Hints:
By secondary structure, chain A is an all-alpha fold.
Amino acid sequence: MDSSLALSSATFIYALASVFYIGSFTFKKKVLSRIGFIVLVIGFLSNTVGIVLRWVESYQMGYGHAPFANMYESLVFFSWTVAIIYIFVELKYKESIIGAFASPLAFLAIAYASLSPDISNKISPLLPALKSNWLIAHVITCFLGYSGFAVAFGFSIMYFIKPKNPDATTIFAKLPSWEVIDELTYQMVVFGFLFLTIGIITGAVWANSAWGTYWSWDPKEVWSLITWLIYALFMHLRMMRGWYGKKLALVSIIGFLAVIFTYFGVNFLLSGLHSYS
Amino acid sequence: MKKNQTIPDLIWQFFCSVKLTVYTLLFLAATSVIGTVILQNGAILQYKRLYGEAFYNLIKVLNLDDMYHAWWFLMLIGILCVNIIVCSVERLSRTWKIIFPKKIKFNPERFRRLKNLETFTLKKDGPSIYADYEGFLSRTVGNVIKKDTQNGIALYAEKGRWTRLGVYLVHSSIILLLIGALIGSIFGFKANLRLDEGETSDSAFIVKKRLPVNLGFSIRCNDFDVKFYDTGMPKEFTSNLTIIENGKESFTRDIRVNHPLRYKGINIFQSSYGTAQPDSIVLDIIKRADKSVTSQTIKVGEEIQLPGNQGLFKLEGFLQRFDFRDHDLGEAFIGTVTLKGGKSSQIGLPMKFPTFDKMRKGKYAFVVKKFDRKYYTGLQITKDPGIWYVYSGFILMILGCWVTFFMSHESFCIEIEKIPEESSKISVSGITNRNSQGMKLKIKKIVTKLKDK
Ligand code: HEM
């Protein structure tokens, strides 16, 4: 088996998990989400195997670097983190319905990585500046942060489809209570914020060890700072009267758009130090 | 506005509000976008070409060409700092006594009304349960406070009161960071130095001010080496440097990308490299008339006679990039040919196209036969006395976020009431300053544990 087989299986299995979760949600069948969970865990394992194999293959090719070096690898890792965060949330909070909002994210990221013509899945050598353990720490923590925000985004969507009326009988009435959605969104934002903070910091330390400046206002840096500020805004807004529910969820959605722009937009639209990945 | 408020009071209140924080963060986020869209630190001509004359004036007025150092952007950061300091002082002075009270007070009534209250009954009563539960609380939570109630007892324990200070750690880390950045920008510098192999220098050029700065010691580049991947991409580049102080060699060290040399507060980074001007080359001079070839070694800057004393050739120098009719032909030597009785003309001899000069169709054609490639190393030299403040800020921020987000002040109450038939009714509930769902789950867990006892 090689990494690309493992990763394409993961893509397929995540798709299947999403189908089960969404099915469970639409047909109100708890058993489907149980299956969905198991399928998701299998997809996650396959994803893990794929990442490890890619690591090994990079050593076999003589390049020898961790698989977090380009867009393809980071998207694959992003799916992995979304999956593990969601598995953790489901185990802890025992709310399987929300899987319908999280598992598709894992699927979409890895599917986009494999299918987009702009993204190459070749294992390529690293520029000297990128050979640093700080870089590995930087990429891992940034992506944990991004995934936290992604899951928060998934949860925020629930604010817009759950009916206000508690007696409503649409499928969306089965969603968890407002309190739970609130708390989960907040916990995910907080998780993302902590890791984005560490991500920005490890990036700064890395830049300082490679170029002697920890911050150079490069577009990618600025965009991650913007993202960080938006989520700081989210946390402070939460403390002001009148900011809850949909309004706050909107801020989390805007925050996630900033994440996406930091991730894709900067690479494709703006130029700077980070355009390698 | 209330009466009796002095102006300083009003200013204090202005800086105390979280609303100001929200606006400042919003403005910082929104305006930061500008600098990623508009070219930063470009030349005037570039701006005029890209954005036109009128917009260029706006860019100049608002410093948008260096916007992260523009007065208004720095002012926003300044407001944020004052906001943080004032807000923290105000809140801490008000809540310090609540965070660290002399004596912890406990009101069972408050716990009876909680939403997460769970109750169950037990076919047991008496002091044995009290002791059991007290032991449980003091083991898993902390010091237990007991209070007698109407028909039983209430046990209370709490932990993590200090975690309420986490937010202040986060906020002070921001101040620390900015202090570090300020120190760095005042007392530090970022400079470039280009050293050919064998060359020595005791100063570097500051990037922003385009001024030289003395380093206090000299650096000599003994050797430069670059390795490539089979794809042609550079894999590693290394400079072998010797530090010379007061005319004496102190030590010699290799530096690589990501492995700088730090000495006396100055950091020396490997940043780029290129081909340096060689001392001499071997030149073939081809006479067009009879195709005869003469080989000759010539130094850079030297002038030689052409074969048969027909004129002069001077080797002017070496260029990293040679522009020919708007095409970059790469590395090249430049020379001047002066034929007897004729005008002198400048010629380029690009390395990539050895026969290039033949196309000129002059009396003589020149071909660079051989030259010893010598590299120069591009060093980035920085000094930043603020770095330790910044790094402390980093650590404090991570710690602060951890404490704020994942730790909390939790207090639990277990109330045991005697009910008829030698039984007890037990109620468990808890208060937390964050994550109330988590608390709910915790209470449920505690209840299962207590039932098993
Ligand atoms: C970039 C700047 C800032 C960052 C990253 C930041 C970060 C944070 C964080 C992480 C929290 C905890 C949020 C939570 O518990 O959900 C917080 C709370 C808070 N922040 Fe900030 N903050 C910043 C600026 C400010 C400023 C300028 C003020 C000035 C008033 C401020 C006032 C507060 C207050 C009053 C709280 C609530 C504290 C409490 O829960 O008792 N923050 N901030």
